[in-house]
């Protein structure tokens, strides 16, 4: 990135180093069995505390019996491998299918990540998300294609995040997968 990492990119990366994850990885919680519910919460917690997880990564999972299917996108190969290792170590997990995609290394994508991070998290109405220990808006960039993942509090915030991200130069395509999280589901 022209002369080094920007402050925003460095701060977001450092947050991952310090164990301040970008967001709780998401997954679909089972609806019946207490054992499945326990396992869902354990997988969720283990992914949440992965070192180096940042706003530029997004990990999700699905439970199928004793099989855990990991999906999403990450910047570091070690994060992809660590997610699989910690989930495999859990009691009740018989198999892990790791479909987490490793994002390609690209200085242009790094610059785009940094610019979108600033556009979103330095915007006054959205800045409150950056102040959280677990910032909920993830910025996934692959070859100039941008996807926002995670959660926000309102449809207005979702739309504002879209407007801010699409206003950044060099965004080839854009997809907004942000979910508006209601207050009742926020604590779950």
Provide structural commentary.
The model is unreliable at 1-24 (pLDDT under 50). The chain is of the alpha/beta class. The N and C termini lie far apart (39 Å). The protein has two domains: 7-102, 2-Layer Sandwich (GMP Synthetase, Chain A, domain 3), CATH 3.30.300; 107-181, Histidine-containing Protein, Chain: A (2-Layer Sandwich), CATH 3.30.1340.30. It has helices spanning 7-17, 34-48, 77-88, 107-121, 127-130, 155-166, 183-186, and strands at residues 26-27, 58-64, 67-74, 95-102, 137-142, 145-152, 173-176, 179-180. α4 (107-121) crosses α6. The strands form two sheets. Strands 1-2-3-4 form a four-stranded mixed beta sheet, with helices on one face. Strands 5, 6, 7 and 8 form a four-stranded mixed beta sheet that branches.
């Amino acid at each position: 990135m022209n002369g080094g990492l920007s402050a925003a990119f460095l701060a977001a990366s450092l947050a991952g180093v310090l164990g301040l994850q970008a967001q709780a990885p998401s997954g679909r919680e089972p609806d019946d069995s207490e054992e499945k519910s326990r396992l869902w919460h354990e997988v969720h917690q283990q992914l949440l505390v992965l070192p180096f997880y940042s706003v530029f990564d997004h990990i999700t999972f699905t439970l199928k019996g004793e099989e855990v299917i990991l999906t999403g996108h990450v910047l570091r190969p070690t994060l992809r491998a660590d997610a699989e290792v910690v989930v495999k170590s859990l009691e009740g997990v018989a198999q892990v299918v790791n479909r987490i995609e490793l994002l390609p290394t690209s200085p242009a994508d790094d610059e785009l990540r940094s610019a979108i991070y600033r556009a979103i998290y330095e915007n006054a109405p959205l800045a409150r998300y950056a102040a959280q220990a677990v910032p909920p808006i993830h910025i996934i960039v692959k070859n100039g294609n941008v996807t926002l993942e995670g959660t926000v509090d309102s449809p207005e915030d979702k739309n504002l995040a879209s407007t801010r991200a699409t206003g950044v130069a060099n965004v080839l395509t854009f997809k907004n997968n942000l979910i508006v999280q209601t207050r009742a589901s926020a604590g779950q």
